[in-house]
Amino acid sequence: MAYARQNIAKIQEIFASVSQKKYEGDENITVHAAVGRFAFIYEKIRNAVDYKDEHLIRKAAILRIMKRLLMLERDPRVIAERLIRELIAARYLPNGVMPQTSIDEVSWRIYKLQLIQSVGAGSESHLDWVKSMVAVEIEDLLVDSGRQKSLVAFLYERINDSVKVRGAEMDQSEVQLQTYLACFRMVAKADDEILGYKMLRAFLPEWLTPQNWMDDPRPIAERMVALERRIKLQLRHPMNLKFQRVVKPWAVALNMMASAFEKKPEDVNALLQDPDALKTAVSLVAEERYAKTKARVRRATVRAMIYLFLTKMILALVIEAPAEWYLYNELHYQPLLINLLFPAALMFVVGLFIRVPGPENTARIRSALDELLGEGMPGLRIISAPPKRSAMAKLMLSFVYMMTFVVSFGLISLVLEYISFTWISTLIFLFFLSLVSFFAFRIRLNAREYFVVDDKVTLRHSIVDFFSIPILRAGRWLSLSISRINIFLFFFDFIFEAPYKIFLSLLEEWFTFAKEKKDELQP
Known about the structure:
Blueprint: H1 5-16, H2 33-48, H3 57-72, H4 76-89, H5 101-119, H6 124-142, H7 146-159, E1 163-166, H8 172-188, H9 192-203, H10 218-235, H11 240-263, H12 268-273, H13 275-328, H14 333-352, H15 359-373, E2 381-384, H16 391-418, H17 423-447, H18 459-484, H19 487-520
Parallel strand pairs: 1-2
């Protein structure tokens, strides 16, 4: 089949555009290489104790650095300059490329934030949300993502009329919004903060023109309090996962096509004119992605095993063994040994059963590509709303759900009691079982990034879900609770980072001063 001319033209336009901005006639910001090396090492160490997806690390760094600078400085231009220089030093931005004018542009964003803070509208958590919106805006300003946005726009334009909802009270505008959010999340791997900023721009266009409201920021600040609730309602829409599931095959196909073009930019036009050659190139990219996913899963499993083994060993030495000796005047070696080895062993076994996509998945990606670039509208996709349940049905289902926790944890506890586990060793076993299960679930989700073929629901899967969901929910709660009291992050962010960055700033000043003195020696 031949692809539609209008679709080929749009893709050609996207990949013919120059993604890098040109800064001719402007002095660029440069950070000394030695300072950059120290800053880069620090960021690597800090990010090791605060796991985030790779494409979200820079945004998180902008937010973290900006919060610290806001506590230390009031001048928005000084904050902007220090922020950009720290980002360059940590290699989140290229050295010697960013123009001096970017300091003025970023300072406007900082000033907007300070105006909203000065009003005092909303709670502390609302102000944190506003800061996250400004961090996304700053990243959007400093890092060109035009091609990615164009791909999202192309995908949305092609599939918008193909996504329909049945059995839910959603007007067309809400369906379109959820479809767009799903497109952006699937193509750009956007999180809630990035999507929230996109909606902020759409719902409050005045946000982009602070010069019009800087004399009286209160109305904008108060509107943003209500807007945060509106945005979060859309992000937590009960059907957003269903929209993402529908959009995913097209988004994966589009991303793999983009990767094929980026590998050989000179072949873009030739591949678009030859559908078979393009699908072969996409299939090669898919196989490469599957292989990388398998290697990534293996590395993640090994890291998790080492982390769990060391954590469990420390916990056994600090809590479990002393507590058992204090309460029972003896050590129960069998439960202690099982608790020591079980978490890493379970992680290893689960890692063995995590699979990557196969030929059927690649065929579905090729089919989705044909739908995107071919003539006419892609095939209709119907999203069914969850069935409406009476109050009694909801109550009964909630009771059954609670009973799954009792059954799952109760059976495990009985087995542990049978093999002479004490209540202390049982609690520690259940703690690590929940955490390991959730870790494994997260690794499995990452491995399914390119899956576009749904799994078949079998009796075995239903039974496994019945017993595993309570454990996974407990693991998720524990993981979120532990992340909130991460001692390492507290040390880095509140004790170490500020003086360390001040030291690097002074070091760079010294290097600049030394260079000036050296230049004075020349005739």
